[in-house]
Specification:
A mainly alpha; B mainly alpha; C alpha/beta; B: MetI-like fold; about 0% strand; C: alpha/beta; five-stranded mixed sheet; three-stranded antiparallel sheet; 16 helices; 8 strands; globular
Chain lengths: ~350, ~280, ~425
């Protein structure tokens, strides 16, 4: 429907050459451009904007998606804000986010640093570190579920073999969070390391030379030069991890979805999105599900702002800031150069790496 | 220098340990998929690859329509990828290289949509598709995702630096219209960027879970991820078979990635740098 | 990966064509081809041979059956498909929470209009009544029932010096109290032994023996009453004695404790025979026995079939379900996968008396028939799922040690109060 129209329109517009001698009408002249950008806006209007507005309307109703809708005013929101499960979902999500993101980013920095210094096997490493990221969460969760299992888990077998008591990971709220956080960290550490590596490679070696001349230790160099210069890259990874972290769902659904309680024992793995899914589709509370969606939206906006404040701004050292800006420009420039078709040089470099 | 040398060796040891952690879950998946369920469920567990792999894989094929699910996943992934590449690059080309009234406003609007989490409107999206009668069909997986703000934003950043204005002017002088300029000037230059966006989109759709879980209501037409979860739900008592299914589901993408992933990784990293 | 322009254009044109084809108007019909009746049920809820027959053709009609087994979050899938309004199956299985579907009874055909009332006399009266809505529509047709009994591992009981023969075990554990003592002995002899997979099973099976559940038919709330609290306290006791395997429902662990032998005894419904030991521990064939449960007769589960309003051919669908649930075929479903008939005529079917080698050649039907006969019956309200889920969730909190029993009880009552108020039930 909408999509095909757009295609047809785009095609029609494209074949018609604008007559050059007529007085130019700015809007008419720009028709092809409007047509070119319209598919996104049309699709967004139907599947994005309309549902967003519709969800405001829905959230004032009680509706199971099957029978008639009933107007309930702000009841869904007041239920939401007074629901202990909702607050538990928020705390869980934040805890999982922190215990996955912090170790993950630190580890990624270490790995990126080692990768940066390593000259051999670099492309092997990169592929090995990236593979977890392209592996489906469903399959990964099943494997981790059996590693953490209470009764036949590898982890417990290990604990028992060294004489310790086994831990019922998947029955304890904190154990569940550890399991979910490890899945997240396992999938994303390598990805973030690769991103950091690209950032490291964009830092000019002159800076390091200068530091060496000044007699800085490797540790000082790392914390005083590398980390500040990487700040924009760290911001990027922090923002993406935050958005991803707030939307964790698959892990708890695969681990506990068929148990009737999507959060698992004690709701230890109940995240905001799984709370949304469970209420909306598990018990067909469509109006309530719409209200939860808005809560999630507010949280994401809030955390994006906090991220920018923490890592992006709030800097007393002007020098570092300027250096960061310069590094950023360099990074962008280098990336663009590489993107623009420097693939061959890249390949040659890879070959030397491998040798 | 010995100190340097030691540092290098230590670096490789650290990296190799990381590689082992990355690879281990796959090994463990193989161990479980190649043993029998009673062997898995006992203590101490079997640590080595067993001899029941093909038997378990055969059971997967007997119990679910594995290749059917794979075909649906492939159709959705290819469908979305092709549409995204076309719509996103076309829009990005217009945004990056042309002045037109309202351009900045429209682009700002596009950026604003970034802030909206996809789950915000999950319920009304479902209701909308239900009204269209699309629930359960491939359309529900393909059409809503056929153009996205991320791709347009990314391609625009890319196109800005990569497409020289002179080429467009030259094409204009030759009497080429906008669409022809896109085809002859834009596309060839954007090709590496398209490759990145294509793989990125493909992987995302292939691995997507929440959306297909909700909209693919016909149990005989599930995506691979949902079918896998379903296998676990229905045949959970035969866990080694479930693990064989998990293994079979991750092989295709990893295979493709090992063959073609090197450039993609460089592209992903460069992509992140564009923010 | 390289994308040449020609390839890209060809793909673009192709996908445009695909998009054009896809955006045709959606269908409102039910799931499956026009000569098929689609059916959803969970695993272990039907006899595979009967289904295979119907998949070739439903006798007396021009339709074939197309059956799909759905696992785990079955109800979510059913409700989502009803809300999705397309590709809804013709026939769906409904569990013992059939009353929770009553508010949406208009989504289903009134089976009385299709001739169900003529068959009423063939079925257990209490079972038949459960499928009838307050305004006298017959929404769901009886499948099996779920009489309960005690399953136990004879080999482990022998090792522990406990009685081994069914009659002796029943005599040694007439009530839950003595059952706990039996469990303790088994645990002493074989460390790690458990007599329940988790805390909620004890609660639900104790509840399944009572003549009252969570509400009265006229809507009075009962779930804060003594009968519920007694079942609750019993479940807590079993856990405190260390006799639960702490393997929560639906988890892989719940299967694992059957497979690896930790679960040495279990008060379960008849269908558990298949879903539990027969599926999860085929190697324990011959080691299990069944005997009357401590605490008396009970019923948990047992399903229904309903025909959705999307159905292509309600008459054919009804012909199928009345055939599938005839006393002759229900008798066959008892043999495999151990579903207990809701048609009394089946009980005299000689096939039911066949010894079951999985249970060491025991005639298990006697135990379940006795339980079914003595079961008092209890009222299921449309809110039983809400109430039951809240109680279960808080019981789990006790088992994992994050709340005391009293605290969990208070929180459960508070949560139920909130949810019932929102649902307009109280």
């Amino acid at each position: 429907m909408a999509v095909t129209d757009t295609i047809r329109r785009t095609a029609a517009v494209a074949t018609k050459d604008p007559a050059p001698d007529k007085p130019p009408n700015k809007f008419r002249q720009a028709l092809p451009q409007y047509a070119a950008v319209s598919p996104f806006f049309i699709l967004f209007a139907i599947f994005g904007a309309f549902p967003v507005f519709f969800s405001i309307y829905l959230s004032f109703h009680s509706w199971d998606g099957i029978g008639p809708m009933k107007w309930v005013g702000l009841e869904q929101y007041s239920y939401l804000l007074t629901d202990p499960q909702f607050w538990k979902a928020i705390t869980n999500t934040l805890i999982i986010w922190v215990i996955s993101t912090v170790p993950m980013l630190l580890l990624a920095l270490v790995i990126a640093n080692s990768l940066h210094n390593a000259t051999r096997f670099r492309s092997f490493y990169r592929i090995a570190y990236f593979i977890p990221n392209i592996t489906s969460v469903v399959a990964v969760t099943m494997v981790f579920g059996s590693i953490f299992s209470n009764n036949f888990g590898l982890l417990n077998a290990f604990l028992q073999s060294i004489g310790l008591d086994k831990i019922e990971w998947l029955s304890q709220p904190w154990g569940i969070k550890v399991a979910i956080a490890s899945i997240v960290a396992w999938r994303w550490t390598g990805y973030n390391a690769i991103i950091f590596l690209a950032g490291l490679q964009a830092i000019s070696s002159d800076i390091y030379e200068a530091a060496k001349v000044d007699g800085a230790s490797p540790r000082q160099t790392f914390w005083r030069i590398t980390v500040p210069l990487l700040r924009p890259v760290i911001l990027f990874t922090a923002v993406t991890s935050t958005i991803g972290g707030l939307q964790i769902f698959t892990e708890s659904q695969v681990l506990f979805g068929s148990s009737g309680a999507i959060g698992g024992p004690g709701d230890g793995g109940l995240t905001i999105v799984s709370y949304l899914y469970d209420n909306a589709f598990g018990s067909n509370q469509f109006g309530y599900g719409a209200a939860i969606g808005w809560a999630l939206f507010i949280l994401i906006v809030l955390f994006s702002i906090i991220n920018w404040r923490l890592i992006g701004g709030n800097d007393d050292e002007r020098l570092t800031k300027r250096a960061a800006r310069r590094a950023n420009a360099r990074i962008a420039e280098q990336a663009a150069r590489r993107q623009a078709g420097d693939a061959e040089t890249e390949e040659r470099k890879e070959l030397t790496d491998a040798r | 220098m010995p100190v340097e040398r030691i540092r290098t060796v230590v670096g490789h040891v650290v990296l190799m340990f990381g590689v082992a952690v990355s690879i281990f879950p796959f090994y463990w998946m193989l161990v479980m998929a190649s043993n029998t369920t009673p062997d898995i469920f006992t203590y101490p567990p079997k640590l080595l690859v067993g001899s029941h792999l093909f038997e378990n894989m055969g059971n997967v094929l007997d119990n679910i329509d594995f290749f059917g699910a794979m075909l649906i996943t492939l159709a959705a992934s290819v469908g979305v990828t092709v549409l995204v590449l076309f719509f996103d690059s076309l829009a990005a080309f217009a945004f990056a290289k042309y002045e037109f009234p309202g351009r900045n406003l429209l682009f700002g609007l596009l950026l604003a949509t970034f802030m909206i989490p996809s789950q915000l409107a999950l319920v009304p999206q479902f209701v909308t598709l239900a009204e269209f009668g699309w629930i359960g069909s491939l359309k529900a997986l393909i059409i809503p995702g056929a153009a996205n703000a991320f791709g347009i934003f990314w391609m625009r950043q890319y196109a800005k630096g990569a497409i020289p204005d002179e080429l467009i002017s030259a094409a204009k002088v030759d009497g080429a219209g906008f669409f022809r300029q896109y085809l002859t000037v834009g596309l060839p230059v954007l090709r590496p960027g398209l490759a990145f966006l294509g793989i990125f989109t493909f992987i995302n759709v292939w691995n997507d879970y929440l959306w297909p879980l909700i909209v693919m209501t016909d149990p005989n037409r599930l995506t691979l991820q949902v079918a896998l979860q379903q296998l676990n739900g229905v045949y959970g008592t035969d866990y080694s078979m479930v693990m064989a299914g998990a293994l079979m589901s991750v092989i295709p993408l990893i295979g493709v990635f090992i063959i073609g992933g090197r450039h993609f990784i460089a592209d992903i990293a460069a992509g992140a740098m564009k923010f | 990966m390289t994308v040449t322009r020609r390839k890209f254009l060809a793909l673009g044109a192709g996908s445009a064509a695909v998009a054009a084809g896809l955006s045709g108007c959606g269908s409102r019909s039910s799931l499956g081809a026009s000569d098929e009746l689609s059916m959803w049920c969970w695993t272990g809820s039907v006899n595979d041979d009967l289904i295979a027959q119907a998949e070739k053709g439903i006798a007396g009609t021009s339709k074939k059956l197309s059956m799909t087994r759905i696992g785990g979050d079955y109800k979510t899938k059913v409700l989502t498909s009803l809300a999705g309004k397309s590709l809804v199956p013709d026939i769906i299985g409904i569990n013992d929470d059939v009353a929770t579907y009553f508010p949406n009874a208009d989504q289903f055909h009134d089976l009385n209009e299709l001739g169900a009332d003529k068959l009423k006399g063939d079925f257990l009266e209490w079972k038949w009544k459960l499928g009838i809505t307050p305004d006298n529509k017959m929404m769901a047709f009886p499948m099996d029932t779920g009489p309960t009994a005690l399953f136990y591992r004879r080999d482990i009981f022998e090792k522990a010096g406990l009685p081994t023969e069914p009659a002796d075990v029943a005599a040694a554990a007439p009530d839950w109290e003595s059952y706990i003592e039996v469990g303790k002995k088994a645990k002493q002899a074989v460390p790690g032994s458990a007599i329940t997979d988790n805390i909620t099973s004890v609660f639900l099976y104790a509840l399944a023996q009572l003549p009252q559940r969570f509400m009265t038919p006229d809507g009075k709330y009962l779930a804060d009453g003594d009968h519920i609290r007694k079942a609750w306290d019993l479940a807590v006791r079993v856990v405190k004695e260390g006799l639960s395997a702490n393997a929560q429902d639906g988890s892989t662990d719940a299967n694992a404790v059957v497979t690896n032998g930790r679960l040495v005894a279990f008060v379960g419904a008849v269908w558990w025979a298949q879903l539990g030991p027969k599926n999860a521990a085929p190697k324990t064939k011959g080691l299990w026995r069944v005997t009357p449960a401590p605490g008396g007769a009970g019923n948990r589960g047992g399903s229904f079939l309903a025909i959705t309003k999307y159905c292509k051919d309600p008459e054919a669908a009804f012909a199928f379900i009345s055939w599938l649930e005839s006393s002759k075929n229900q008798a066959q479903s008892f043999l495999d996968p151990v579903l207990f008939p809701s048609t009394p005529a089946s009980y005299t079917d000689s096939r039911l008396a066949a010894p079951d080698p999985f249970f060491g050649g025991q005639q298990i039907v006697d135990v379940f028939a006795d339980s079914a006969k003595k079961y008092p019956g209890a009222y299921f309200s449309p809110y039983d799922t809400i109430i039951g889920d809240a109680l279960k969730a808080e019981l789990v909190n006790i088992e994992i040690g994050s709340k005391t029993s009293d605290q969990a009880w208070r929180d459960a009552q508070h949560q139920i109060d909130r949810e019932l108020t929102r649902a307009g039930a109280i």
